[in-house]
Every structure is written in structure tokens, then in C-alpha cells.
From TrEMBL:
Pfam families: DcpS, DcpS_C. One of its GO terms (biological process) is deadenylation-dependent decapping of nuclear-transcribed mRNA. GO terms for molecular function: 5'-(N(7)-methyl 5'-triphosphoguanosine)-[mRNA] diphosphatase activity; RNA 7-methylguanosine cap binding. It comes from Anopheles melas. Its EC number is 3.6.1.59. It comes from the Eukaryota. This is m7GpppX diphosphatase. GO terms for cellular component: nucleus; P-body. Decapping scavenger enzyme that catalyzes the cleavage of a residual cap structure following the degradation of mRNAs by the 3'->5' exosome-mediated mRNA decay pathway.
Amino acid sequence: MLGRFSNLSPDQQAIVVLEKRAFTEAEITTTPAEREKSAQHGESENEKSEQQPSGEQGRTFFTTSSRLHKEFVNDVYGNFLCTVDPELNRLKVSIIYPASEKHIVKHTAQHRYMIEETIDQYNKITLPHLEEEQLSLEWLYNVLEHRKEKERILYEDPCDENGFILLPDLKWDGKTVEQLYLLALVRRRGIRSLRDLTAADLPLLRNVQTRGIAAIEKRYGIGASQLRIYLHYQPTFYHLHMHFTYLRYDPPGAGCEKAHLLSTVINNLELAGDYYQRATLSYTLKETDKLYGKFLLAQEAADEPAAKRSKTTVLDESQ
């Protein structure tokens, strides 16, 4: 949702993102003892709240207060709507305020178009664009310098050259392990994206990979073979970072048109140290993205001389 907080500013816009949370195993699990207790005592919602710990721990969808509303039944198949405990039906709310034009474009539903970016196009179109349109990185520097979100840090390697901070992504509530989503923010500044990486950065990439996996396994019991570790291109912000997500969860941006597996990036740089200064990289852009507009203008400029040459050839033949 896009709007304004009238009590804060009548001019600045805000984005409010509402998301439904994923189910957890605890929420869909009942034991025979729980079912028997529920049937015997017919406990009310208030009584259950007094017996259960605060928050959602111990709650389940399958209680005497749950209600099924039939849509249809056909032979062995049936569709129903279920009303459950409100504590298990809460929404995750993310707020971006004040929201820039780039934030608004990112969260607007619209057509997307595939871009096949050559290194020449990167240098002539993309690089000048990102230097003009870069979002503020103040929030990121606040994290790296412990001015904000210090309590959310899962792991930190303080090395200035190869160190990083690992913390929950804003998309994750930090509790539902089934939706695990962490960000690794490298401490070194000056590496904007995949395009800047060379063989000299391999120690940094291997360090993030190895220590990030170890930290997640120690905290959540999720091993390397169950993690999806990748970089985005194009990224939302131009300071090198990696995404760590649980394979059981398919978050936005994990598709092949945006995500580049960290293991593949490392392998590519081992094969050719300047791989990302030579490769053509594919990604999608929204139709209102300024960068997409610049690619269209560049294409029109390239097509115009060809059209003129074609017209000249036709005139010559007619003479």
C-alpha cells in the first residue's frame, strides 16, 4: 500500500507491505493427548490463553475454536475455509518511510522485461545510472558501525578486509525458521555489485560462505545442504551483500533471472578472475524503472542509423 502518514508529513509518502506468515510445524501438529484434553474440557479461547505461554508458542490450528466453512465437496475432494485462533492469523507488516521513487517502483505491480546486459552496456548505461540513482546507504552503515540494529546481529566477523555482519532480512520475522532469510553485509566498502568482483575478492566470498554457514548451523541447526546462498543482480542497494535462505522457503528474488548462487560466483572467478567484467548478465526490470527507460533510449539510438542506411539504399536503387 502507498500512502501518507498525515500526522508525520503531508508530503512524504510511505509504503506499507502486508504479508501472511508461513505455517510452522508446531502450528499444524496435534497430539492425541491434546485432542483428548480439548474434547473433555471444551476449553474456551480465554482459558487456553491463560494456560499457554505468551505469543504463539504452544498454539495450534486444530482446536475446538477452529471452524470450517464448506465451499464444495465432490467425491473424495473438498474445499473449505478455516477460521483459526487470531494469534496464529497475524500479518507481518513492513513500513518504508519516507519512500523514495525507487522504493515505490520496486513495490509497484507492473510488467517486467528481460535485459541481456553486455559489459559495454553496463559501462555506458547501467554504471552511470546507478551512480546517479543510488539509494542512501546510511541505514547499512548504521548496522556496520553498530549505531542501529546491534541486537539483531546473528554473527559478526570484524575483519575490515574480509569481515561481514549476518542478520535477519527485513522480510523475515526472525522467529519462523521455515522462512529463514538472513543477509550478510560485507564490511569492506567500494564493492557495489557482482560486476565489481574479481579473483582478488575470493577470500572475502569464501569467508562469508564458510562462516555464514557455520553460524546458521550453530544457531538454527540448518546445514549447508539446506541453504540457498546467493547474490542479486541487479541488487536493490549497491553495497555487496549475500542472501542466506532456507531451501524449504521460496522467497521473492530467488529465481534464475535475479539470483546468482555464491558457489557459482566463486567457481566463475576461479576459472576467470575477470569473469564479471566480461560476461553478459541477464535480469528483469519493471516498465517504469528509469534504467529500463535508458536501455530503450539506447536501443532506439542504435536502431536509427540502421534505418537511415536502409532508406538510403532504397533511394540509391530507385535511381
